[in-house]
Predict the 3D structure of the following.
Amino acid sequence: MKIIQAKDPKELGKSAGKEAGNIISQAIDQNGYANIVLATGTSQFETINQLVKEDVPWEKVTVFHLDEYIGISNTHPASFRKYLQERFVDQVNKLGSIHFIDGEHNPEEACRQLGEVISRHSVDLALVGIGENGHLAFNDPPADFDTGLPYLVVDLDQSCRMQQLNEGWFDSLEDVPSQAISMSIKQIMKSKHIICSVPEKRKAKAVKDCLENKVTNLYPASILQNHPSCTIFLDKASASLLSIAN
């Protein structure tokens, strides 16, 4: 695990996006294609904004969606399908393909179908973040570190739902879904490379918990310590509680 600290979210995103572009381009040079996983949420704004500017032959890229709420449409302001469509798909030329998570209809079937598809692919890069409660994707604590299912239905805890509310995606806590479809911890860890973007002061405690404590499912993103090629991009605020930053 490597930690890179930027001065602010914009610089963080620029560095992370450029690094992601380099990894994707290298995979295409080596294999003729690349398979990637994209996260959403406010932590990914600047990273994705930079990534779409990179000189990547996107027609050779297959994208897998990291997580999505159950029970909201792809026109809902908080929909991660909407987020990826507008912020990524619409911004690049001729994307090879993207496998969205549909949480509207039959979540278990969506997990099964997506699981079958991703199981046929080797993922070159996953872009992820760390939640205020330490979650990785929507795997809230105590996260399931053992399931071999690529995607699963998860319950969202109170702190996770409050984060979504406070970020402005919903009008009230009651509006925030109590369940989501998430890529599993084991599936994320199968990625050859992981780039984790974590800006802002409100993530500082989670960053410290996940990066300076032992690996435990009580701090789900702590599992990233075990990945052979994971780079954590922080800004001054999110790194402020780390002993290495003081």
User: Anything to note?
Assistant: The longest strand covers residues 193-198.
